[in-house]
Structure formats: C-alpha cells, structure tokens
Amino acid sequence: MRKPFALSAYLAYARGRSPTLPPLPPRPDGPLVWMHAERPEAARALAGIAARMQVQRPEISAFLTYTPGSTPWEPNARECPVMPLAPDTAADAQTFAAHWRPEIGLWTGQALHPALLSRLSETGTKLMHLGTRNEPFEAPAPLWVPDTTAATLSVFDRLFAEDDAALRRLRRIGLPETRLRRAGPLSASAPPLDCSDRLHEEMAAQLSGRPIWLAARVRASEASDVLRAHRRATRLAHRLLLVLVPDTPEDGAEISAMAAESDLRVNRWDMGEMPDENCQMLLTEDATELGLWYRLSPIVFLGGSLRPGIGGEDPLEVAAHGAALLYGPNVGRHLASYTQLVEAGAARIVRDFDTLATAVSQLVAPDRAAAMAHAGWDVVSQGAALTDEVVALAFDWLDGDDGTGEAA
C-alpha cells in the first residue's frame, strides 16, 4: 500500500538520522506484548494490564519501554522488564521490529514515533493507543516535514480516547469510527488481596458495632506517631479499635516493644489473642493477612509515608477494598495514584500524629468514610473496566479474531 506523503517525507528524514539502539536482550519464546509509557503513571497501568494477561495466559511475555528523560516508575517483582525507547530513526525501527516481533503493541501518550509504529504495523503487530487526550500530537521532526499525525494514527488498529473531547479530536483527524472507543483515562487498577471468607465472617461478627481503623504496612520509624494518634482519637471514641499491620516481621518486633511500653491495651493476633471489648489495639506480626484487615476497616492509614526515604505504598490497594485512605507526605513512588485519589475525594494527607488523630476522629462518622471509600472504588473500577476491554481485545487478536467476533 502506498504511504501517505507526510509519512514518506518523515521516513526520508528518519533514514538520515544515526541509529542509537543499544544491544537488545534475547526475545522470549511465545506471544509477546510490547508496551510504551510516556509517563510514569501510564507505566504502572500498563504493567497491571500485562500482569492480567499473564495470569490468564502464562505463555505470554511482555516488556515495557519508556521515554528517555521522563521519570520511570520504580518497578517491583510483579512488573515486567523495562527499558528506554531509542529515538525514532528508520534503522532503529527496523532493528526493533525485526528483533522483537511483538504480536501486540500498546502505546500511550501524545508523542508519536512514526517510523517505529509504521514499521511494526507493516510487520504484523496489532497496535492500540490507550488514553488519548484532547491535546495535540507530536512527532520528533523538523518544521519542514509535513504533519504526520493522521498518517501515524491510522496505523493503530484501535484507539481509546479518555473523554468526549479527545474522541472528537480523533474524529476530526479522519480516523475510521470503527477503530475509536471512548473508554476513560488510562489508570492503574489493583485486584483485592486474598482473604478467607470463613475468617472474615468470624471477625466481622466479633467486631460488630466497634469503630475500627487500620494502620497498614507501618514502618517502625512511624509507629510512634500512629500510637499517639490512636490514644488521642480514643478520647472522642472510646471503643475505637486500631489494627496495626507492620510492613515486615522486623518492623513488627520493634513495634511490639513500643506497644508493650504504651498505656494501650494490646492484643497480639499471631499469638491467638482475639480482640475483646477491652482491647484498644490489635497488633499483627506482618502483612500476611492484610486482605482480611482491609475488608474489616473502613479507615486505612497507609504506612511508608510519614518519614522520607521509602516513597509510600500503592494506594490503589486500599481503594480496591473500599476504604477511606489516609497517608503521609512522602509518597513519591506512587505520587500520580495518590493525586488521582485525592482529586476524586478518596484520600486525605496527614503530616504527623496530630493531623492523623484529627482525620481518624472525623472519619469515624460512617457517612464520611463511606463517601471517600465510594470515590476510591470509582477510580479503581474505571481503571479496571479499561483493563478488561484491552485484555479481551488483545486475546481476540492473539486468537486470530479481529475483535468483532469474526476471524481475521
């Protein structure tokens, strides 16, 4: 098929640029999904999509590229391999496509790589653009090169717009309606943690009628603030129960010593002590049964956030369980997710034991905690809905289906 003039002109320019692609690791066997993240928050969302695919189809491999110069998110053991994406040259595009041969490509961001995307499309990669915004698209080319936006976007087999304005922009470009979907912004989602139904029912009955708040993944360095906040909050709600879950057994040992020196009445879960009416604090050794405590606690303070140096924990884990979220100011590792939850009204920042105590005391009122929890659930559900659709379409394509139920 003859290329549009704008794309041909761009490729002529790209052929004159020197290749910069470093040596590539071996391609894994089996189906391969390549994903590109323009921003750190997109990287986490894409890693979650890859994890969902691999749970259902373990034979799938995935890797992620990010734009050099942006701040890559900090990967963990669950996430896929990550590497920077080279500048858009014709030689690098050819090398990348020939080496990786991905069956599926997921692209995010308004910055396009016409040479790479067109080459992948030509070699059979099915391409999706996720989370397109109502902003101009751009490509790394001098002003004398014609605008390649329409030609480059036309190589995508499906484009997911984040809102109606973004969808209208895609329509004005002239893309076929059959390739366009309005699906909301791309955001990470987190599945609920496992929990024994029997144990949950037993503990729900045991704690019925008591106000509860959870301090989860707490480090020893911030435990004193949590204990002081709880003591102050119990002045207004004397039956208030704190469930404290340390991040590690080592943190748990230090926190246990602090609790023993406090004037709180403490029961220790891992020693078989159940919280009775006199118990003010239930202490666990580590985060093994965190799924249970998330389900029982309408208010959650998420640790790793009151002191510098840790960067916070994933807040979507809390939102996925339907709880109001409190957190400290040091959450740089997951800043985008915290910002999203704050803007939705699902999370609230605290800075010390005093503001933590105030927040807990205010959220003990069930309607206030429920409103925050509902807002957080909306955020997680929106991300999950787009993930479901992307995963289903990718599986259709891998199975030789065009996504409409007809064989390709």
From TrEMBL:
Biological pathway: Bacterial outer membrane biogenesis; LPS core biosynthesis
Q: Keyword Membrane: yes or no?
A: yes
Q: Which Pfam families does this UniProt record tie to the protein?
A: Glycos_transf_N
State the EC number(s): 2.4.99.12
Q: Where in the cell is it found?
A: Cell membrane
Gene3D superfamilies, per database record:
3-Deoxy-D-manno-octulosonic-acid transferase, N-terminal domain (3.40.50.11720), Glycogen Phosphorylase B (3.40.50.2000)
Record-level GO BP terms: lipid A biosynthetic process; lipopolysaccharide core region biosynthetic process
Q: Which residues form the 3-deoxy-D-manno-octulosonic-acid transferase N-terminal domain?
A: 27-185
Which leading EC class covers this enzyme? transferase
Q: Which reaction does it catalyse?
A: lipid IVA (E. coli) + CMP-3-deoxy-beta-D-manno-octulosonate = alpha-Kdo-(2->6)-lipid IVA (E. coli) + CMP + H(+)
Q: What is its main location?
A: membrane
The alphabetized UniProt keywords are:
Cell membrane, Lipopolysaccharide biosynthesis, Membrane, Transferase
- What job does this protein perform? Involved in lipopolysaccharide (LPS) biosynthesis. Catalyzes the transfer of 3-deoxy-D-manno-octulosonate (Kdo) residue(s) from CMP-Kdo to lipid IV(A), the tetraacyldisaccharide-1,4'-bisphosphate precursor of lipid A.
User: What family does this belong to?
Assistant: Belongs to the glycosyltransferase group 1 family.
Name by which UniProt lists this protein: 3-deoxy-D-manno-octulosonic acid transferase
Species this chain originates from: Salipiger pallidus
